[in-house]
Amino acid sequence: MIDVIDIYKEAINGNKRAIGKLLTLVEDLKEENLPIVRDILSKGGNAHIIGITGIPGAGKSTLISKIISELRKRGYKVAVIAVDPSSPFTSGAFLGDRVRMQKHATDPGVFIRSLASRGLKGGLSLATLLTLETFDSLGYDKIIIETVGAGQVDIDIFFAAMSILVVTIPGAGDEIQALKAGLMEIGDVYVVNKADKMDADDAVQQLKFALESGELTKKTDWVPRIFKTSAVTGEGISDVVDSLEEHFAYLKRSGGFKKSVLLRREHLVKVLLYWLAEREVDKKLSTVSDIIDAVKKGQIDPITAALKAYDKIF
């Protein structure tokens, strides 16, 4: 325990190696380390959490790299959690996002952590949530979470981020229509990336029409903003960051900031409960081996077996 405390002290002082060790500890959480997580949570609750999501292939990683540069120009300490799809066979991930953001690797004011989604469509595993809380406790001003390429209902980011930036691209007109019922309803800022494409202005107009008709507006006083950007040239990046700053000020002014912190911690309780329950099942699987064997022999159906096993374990 003393070693962990020493690691935490070094991490607070900006030692990147210590930060990496601390993040590994919370990502591979063990029950004996829950007191450390409790301490981490007690020191957080101050950072601006920015969720960046959108359709696959929209250029989110390159866009984030430009946003990091702009935030650093403004003096902010920035952390990035880049969630990559997990392999269904190994649970590992390619972690390609870190490659795209490599230019920031030597910046002492930036820390980029790639995580596997671990099979969760929205990408918010327990490891992701605890990594977020750790960065928050270490004094990072802006924490960016990049989700995996999202579909219509992959909206877990809503429970963690305060400001949500939804990225789309020209030529996704029908997809914008289809996404209205889910992902496209949670945005605070909308970005049409790859602005050099011919139909970029059409995509912006489609989003504007959806906003003006009230179909994409959350039930708050904040009116979502729309921007056209090029992650390659940097066009529009400063305007996007200005809007994120404006939204952060709105949250502070309206009380939404505190509500967002409490919402994500409420969500963390549920995710921790799932984690604890899964561990309990794993520990006691041997006590229900007779029930599982009965399924293998065709003596009992899986539903009845699961209900019996549940009763025996819990």
At a glance:
Helix 3 packs across helix 6 and helix 4 (60-73) crosses helix 9 (237-254).
- Which shape, going by the Cα principal axes? globular
Overall number of structural domains: 3
Order of helices and strands: HHHEHEHEHEEHEHEHHHH
Roughly what is the average pLDDT, rounded to an integer?
84
Describe the structure.
48% of the residues lie in helices and 13% in strands. The protein has helices spanning 2-12, 16-27, 34-43, 60-73, 96-100, 126-137, 173-179, 200-212, 237-254, 256-284, 289-296, 302-313, and strands spanning 48-54, 78-84, 110-116, 142-146, 163-168, 189-192, 225-228. It folds into three domains: 1-43, no CATH class; 45-254, P-loop containing nucleotide triphosphate hydrolases (Rossmann fold); 267-313, no CATH class. Residues 87-94 have low confidence and may be disordered. It has 314 residues and is α/β, with parallel strands linked by helices. β5, α7 and β6 form a beta-alpha-beta unit. It is built from twelve helices and seven strands. α1 crosses α2 (16-27), α2 (16-27) packs antiparallel against α6 and α11 runs antiparallel to α12 (302-313). The two termini are 31 Å apart. Strands 3-2-4-1-5-6-7 form a seven-stranded parallel beta sheet, sandwiched between helices. The longest helix has 29 residues, at 256-284. It is globular and about 65 Å long.
